[in-house]
Write a structure and sequence with these properties.
By secondary structure, the protein is mainly beta. The chain is built from eight helices and 31 strands. Strands 12-11-10-14-19-16-17 form a seven-stranded mixed sheet, with no helix packed on it. Strands 1-13-21-20-15-18 form a six-stranded mixed sheet, with no helix packed on it.
């Protein structure tokens, strides 16, 4: 074959291959309009690998657990407590001899515990000392929309803002974290998270363990992936379906252990991870008592041998170490047996404390059960194709309106995709709510308390009764932080 003929054949071959390729490629507009249940193979593979979540490395128990410090108020006024909270960058020695670049509140990593009293006035001065915009969101706190710290209330680097509110809700364990649009996952991953304890006269009268750091201990669970230089490289670790890591930090501590006395110990569990779910249990199979949900005490303690928390959910449990066999290793483990937190139980006795048979009076009325559904929320999708009611977040769009002080029933449905779907933890800002039903059935005993976040399984329908005490615009969203950043969020305006 002559050279010119060979060249001609080659050109024709290229044109044919190009034409075939073009025939199999849909226009960009058509791709955008595809049903979200139809995903390409790469996306499906990523989603499927995410379902098979990597196990956590076992804690070796070589480091005593760090307990977040209590933030000292700026004043000593009985009428109003004042705090200053700064979002900062820093370096933290998570691994011996290595300085990891991190974010923190009033420090290099994580944040302090803010103690609030029901009935008291609060002023918080928030300062952004980061090199990027951020917000200060008070997760679970019932405040006005402009104090809530959603994506509208961002602070540029160097800016500060003062918020003021009265504490009107009962004793509970809440937390705070950033909420900037599109950047929440990375900022939380880098270390921005802190605790809020609300106390009231009733909680103090119950006789529960309440000595902070000794028999009343917060546990912030977060999983990370560190690079070979011991750094938190979020862009390398990030998964659009939720960033999962193999290294567990509790209160920022690597390979933690907790030393306790032979007494009742109150553990305040917070799933502060971007996406991982935890099922907590004792390696011995012994039971414990759950005494509180996200927003306050249960009516009575519930005996459990395990408890599952999805991202942002909290639970308070009490383990009676005086009644357990401590001759052998005793650890808190995940459902797959991964060692989360070894306990070092001393031979010393501790404080006398009790678990009252009655702690609260949270009830669902017949009126609430008979109310019609006024808000329907459909959670759907995976990766960056997640939606609520078929839409992505638009800061200029109000999705729902609700009247201040009026209880309504919301129905949340997790629509499966062709691969079955995934759990979506659903959170509503600015209010606590009650679960009315799960797929028409009464919720389990340990969910019959105040909640601000709920786990919704694929093809599950959850009904809740919710009332907003304050006015403003509030977010509702999936608390897999990457889903939130990808637009799985809406807005309710309370008027």
């Amino acid at each position: 074959m002559g050279t010119k003929l060979k060249i001609l054949v080659l050109i024709i071959s290229i044109l044919v291959i190009s034409a075939c390729s073009n025939d199999n490629t849909q226009p960009e507009e058509e791709m955008d309009d595809m049903d979200h249940s139809t995903m390409d193979h790469d996306t499906m593979d990523e989603h499927m690998s995410h379902d098979e979540v990597v196990s956590l490395n076992n804690s070796t128990g070589e480091n005593e657990l760090n307990v977040p410090p209590i933030l000292e108020p700026d004043n000593d006024d009985d009428n109003q407590v004042e705090y200053t909270v700064r979002a900062q960058t820093g370096e933290t020695e998570i691994f011996d001899g290595t300085k990891t670049k991190t974010y923190g509140y009033n420090g290099s990593f994580l944040g302090p515990m803010l103690r609030l009293e029901e009935g008291k006035a609060v002023k918080i001065r928030t300062i952004n000392e980061l090199d990027e915009e951020t917000t200060f969101h008070w997760h679970g706190l019932e405040v006005t929309g402009d104090a809530d710290g959603g994506p509208h209330e961002f602070l540029e680097p160097g800016e500060e803002e003062i918020i003021e509110f009265d504490v009107t809700q009962e004793a509970s364990t809440l937390w705070f974290h950033p909420h900037p649009e599109g950047k929440t996952a990375e900022q939380v991953y880098n270390g921005l998270a802190g605790l809020i304890y609300i106390e009231d006269d009733h909680s103090k009268s119950l006789g529960l363990p309440n000595t902070y750091g000794e028999n009343d201990i917060p546990l912030i669970f977060q999983d990370k992936t560190f690079d070979d230089k011991g750094q938190l490289n979020f862009s390398a670790a990030m998964n659009d379906d939720g960033t999962i890591g193999e290294t567990l930090l509790i209160n920022g501590t690597l390979n933690p252990k907790l030393t306790v006395n032979k007494e009742k110990v109150r553990l305040r569990l917070l799933n502060g991870s971007n996406a991982r779910n935890y099922t907590f249990k004792l390696n011995t199979g012994d039971s414990f008592e759950q005494i509180a949900t996200d927003g306050g005490f249960l009516n009575k303690p519930v005996t459990l041998d395990e408890i599952t928390l999805t991202p942002s959910e909290r639970a308070e449990i009490i383990i009676d170490f005086s009644q357990l066999d401590t001759e052998n290793d005793l650890t808190l483990v995940n459902e797959d047996g991964s060692i989360l937190l070894p306990f070092n139980v001393s031979e010393e006795g501790g404080e006398e404390s009790s678990i009252p048979e009655k702690m609260n009076d949270v009830s669902v009325s017949e009126e609430e059960l008979s109310m019609p559904v006024t808000k329907q929320v459909e959670l759907f999708g995976m990766m960056d194709q997640v939606t609520i009611n078929g839409k992505k977040f638009d800061p200029e769009r109000i999705d729902f309106t609700q009247e201040q002080g009026v209880t309504e029933v919301w129905e949340i449905y997790n629509k499966p995709d062709e691969m079955g779907g995934m759990i979506h933890p659903f959170h509503i800002h600015g209010a606590q709510f009650k679960i009315l039903s799960r797929d028409g059935e009464e919720p389990p005993e340990n969910e019959r308390g105040w909640k601000d976040s709920i786990s919704v399984q694929p093809d599950e329908t959850v009904k809740i009764a919710i009332q907003f005490k304050h006015k403003g615009i509030y977010m509702f969203h999936c608390h897999i932080l990457e889903h939130e950043d990808n637009g799985m969020m809406g807005q309710v305006k309370v008027e």
